[in-house]
Amino acid sequence: MRRRVLVLVAATTSLVLIAFLVPLALLLRTVAADRAVQAATSEVQTLSSLVATSDRAGLALTVQLLDATSAADVTVFLADGTVVGTAAARSPLVELAARGRSATGIVPGGREIVFAVRDPAGAAAVIRTFVPDAALTAGVTRAWLLLAALGVGLLAISLLVADRLARSLVRTTAELASVSHRLADGDLAARAATDGPAELAVVAGALNGLAGRIDGLLREEREAVADLAHRVRTPLTALRLDAEALAEPADAARIGDGVDGVQRAVTLAIEQARRRTPGPGAAAGCDAAAAVRERVAFWAVLAEDTDRPTYVDIAPGPLTVAVARADLEAAVDALLGNVFAHTPDGTAFAVHLARGADGAGAVLTVSDDGPGPAPGSDPLRRGTSGAGSTGLGLDIARRVGERSRGGLDLHPGPRGGLAVVLRMGAPDEGSR
User: Are 335 and 368 within 8 A, CB to CB?
Assistant: First the structure.
């Protein structure tokens, strides 16, 4: 932007200077030539009366004196053919003046001026002066150099002023971009200064208003989620008491573990609602192999109760990913929960965890042999479900992948059904 402003000002100023200085330079050359011609004409006009009244010796002395002090060459052609002053040939203009007509003409090397006069005997005589090109352009080069210096100076001043203005515009624009990037990174306290140019000040005010609105909406959403999660704790406490009251210790332990898992999820929801959403890669890393292995063991009990063949292939750890362990466990629970919720009992499923393609991070694949998603449905669309659920399971996993600089993909399963691939990146060096 700064360069464009400078180019625009330079082009505009140059056009104005050319339109002003070129005609002025031509005018100066014309004025200099007219001044030289006028000076030569005035000098030789004084000889007109001398030619008519003075004798030949006095006339010769006067012409020689004038020729020596003048920038032009002065010659007098007498009727008898005598030439007084600077030697010169009888040009066509001299012949024309000998017939009684004064004239001026441009000849090679300068300008020739002739006057028709009469000598003391009344015979026709001609006074000729020749103004060379050097005299016609005397001082023109110096004047042109002064004009060029003036043009360069004006152009430099205009560029200096334009540069100051462009810097102000660029600085204000860069500040707006910086504030927008800070807002995108989660710094909702960032605000833009409104003391710049009027147009940019309007943009800054609108950006500040948008930031305030986003901050307010997020605050309301966090409080609503936190309140909702807090309310869930009461029935969870009741479930824990009921589980502890069961006669069978195995059942009590199993149900207690489930309640503990829900309790952890609720606590995590409250903590996330109370803090700002971290940017990509900001989460502390965890060992994906350990987390996935633990959650698969938890769901294996239910798989056994529902006669579901389970195939597990987990690469030896540690497989460090840029995901908090609680978030990864929630994503694994969401993917396995979808298998149990949307496929009939007895449907086999497989869990495969491998290192990332570049040797960093991890790739988790959960596939099943079920019927797959309904035709025309979009399982990755948040809040959309073809089976009467909330439609948030895949979205939870997708957000976990994106926060770790990975993602979530859906493919047909190797034996039909659906294969969900969760890609998770490795944490930054500074966060390991």
Answer: no
